[in-house]
Amino acid sequence: MKKVDPITLEVMRNVLQSIAEEMGAALIRTALSTNIKDRRDCSSGIYTMDGGLVAQAEHIPLHLGLMPAVVKKVIEYFPPESLHPGDAIIVNDPFVSGSHLPDISVIAPVFYNGKPVAMVANLAHHVDVGGMTPGSLPVQATEIFQEGLRIPPMKIRKKGFLNEELINFIKHNVRTPKEFEGDLQAQIAGCNVGERRLYDVFKKYGAETMQLYMEGLMDYSENRMKAELKKLPNGSWEFEDYLESDGQMEGKIPVHCRITINDGDVTVDFTGSSRQVKGCINSTRAVTMACVYYAFKAVCDPDIPSNEGAFRAVKVITEKGSIVDPEFPAAVNSANCNTSQRVVDVVLGVFAQIVPERTPAASNGSMNAVTVGGINPRTGRYFSYIECYGGGQGAMDGQDGMDGVHSNMTNSRNAPVEVIETEYPIRVECYKLAKLDGGEGKYRGGAGLCRELRILESDAYVTVSMERCAIKPWGLNGGNGGTNSSCTLTLPDGEVKKLSTKFAGKVEPNSVITITTAGGGGNGKPEERDRASIEVDIRAGFITEEYARKVYNY
After folding, report:
1. What φ, ψ does residue 461 adopt, rounded to 5°?
2. Which residues contact 468 (CB under 8 A, 6 or more apart)?
3. How far apart are CA 336 and CA 313, in angstroms?
4. Residue 1: pLDDT above 70?
5. 46-78 pLDDT per residue, tens
6. Stretch 156-161: mean pLDDT
7. Contact 97, 91 (CB under 8 A)
C-alpha cells in the first residue's frame, strides 16, 4: 500500500484548494443577481463520494460548515450507482440541506474512467424563492411552508441535459425568475469548472493516488486538531447567551453551551437551550454544527486545512426539538442570520474561560438581514434587494475589534451604493460607521454600521432581521459590552417610528429605513486604554472628548 508523502500532500492540498476557489470565481463572474455577483453570498467545495469534505474555498463560514451535511444527505437520495456523467442535483429543503430556503445547493459527481470518484458542490443565496414576503426571509413565519418553495434533492441536469421542466416549475413559483435562472446557470457553470479541473488532476495522478491523498488530507487535519485539543486543560465549562425575539414574541430565548474536555476528547453539549420556538429563528442541527466547527478552528488553529478531518474529534450534542435542532415543520429562515451567531457567541464564551488569550469578546451578534421588495416601476417587474450589514467585531486581548465588518459565520461583501441605486428603486441617503456608545476597554470593540435607505416611486415590502437591540454583545476581562443595534422608520411626514428587530411590513414611497448595527464588546479595563488610541477615536469622530473623560478618565 502506498504511503502519503508530506510534500505531495501539501501540493495536493493547494491543488484542491485552488480548484474550489476557481469554482467560486466562475460562479461569481457569471451570476446575475447583485447578491452573488457583487456581495458574493455563495460558497464552493470538493467532496469524496461518501460526502467527506476535502477542500473548500474561503467563502461563507456558515455555508462551508453545513455543506458536508447537504452532500451526505444527497448521496442518500442518489447513491453513486444512480449517478451518470453530466448529472447535477439541486436541493434547498432545510430539513435535508440544513440551511434556509434561499440557499440553493447544486451538487455534481465527477467521473473518471467511467466511475464516480468525487463530488463538487456550491451553495448560493438566491434573492427570492417565494413565500410570504419578497426576499423569502419572512420574520413573521411560524412554519417552513410559509417561507418559500421547498426543493427536495432532484436532478436539475441529467446526463448533460438540463431539466427544463423542473427549472420552469421553480421559475413559476419565485418573484424574480430571471435572476433565479441566471444564478442557477452560474452555479452549474461553477460545478462544470470543478468537474473539468478534478478530471484533469485524476488523469494526471491516477484514481488510486488521488483517493489516497484526499483521505490523507482529512487525516492530516484530524491529527492537527487532535494535537491542539490535547493542549487544552481537562474540565467542564458552560456559558449562556440569549436571543431577543423570534418574530412572534419578545423576551430572552436562551442558547446554552457546555464544553467538556478529557485528554483531548471534546464534547460540546447544547442541552439547556430553549425548546424550538414558534417563530423563525430555529437553527437546524447542520447550522449548529457549522458554528461549532468554525469556533473550534478559529480558536484552536485557524491554519488547519478546512476539511472533514478537522472536526472528527469534536462531538456535538443537541436535543431534538430544541432551538438548535428543531423538528419539522419549524420556521428556520432567520436562524442563519441570528441564531448561528449566538451559537458562536456561547461557544466562544466557553473558550473565553479556557483560553482567554485566544478568544475575542462578542461581536455584533447578527448578520443584520434587510430585504426590500416589490414592483419596480422602471421595469414593471418584481425586484428583491437583500443584504446583510456588517457590525463591530469583538476586541481581542491585544487588538481592537475591526469596525463595520462581517464577523464569525458570514463573510459576504457589501453591495456598492451605485449598484443599489442602479438596480432598485432605492436611494442610499447615508452609509457610515456608527458612533461608539459601548465596547470600551483597554482594547475597544469595533463600531457598527449605519445605513439609511429611502424607498422611491412605489410601495415596497421591507423585512428586517436583527439582534442585540436590548442585550449588548458581551465584553471580556473588564471590558464593557458593545453598542446596541437599532432600526427606525421615518415616514414621509417626518414622523419617526422605532421598529422591532424582527420587522415586516409595507412601506410607502419617500419613507426612510435606518439600520444601525451593534458594536463589538471591549477587552480589558477601559481605564487601561492608552491615550494615543483614545485620541485617534476622538479625531475619527467615534467618541467626544467629554465621553472619553467619562469612560476612560481621559
Report:
1. -100, 125
2. 244, 364, 365, 366, 482, 484, 485, 518
3. 25
4. no
5. 999 999 999 998 888 888 888 899 999 999 999
6. 97
7. yes
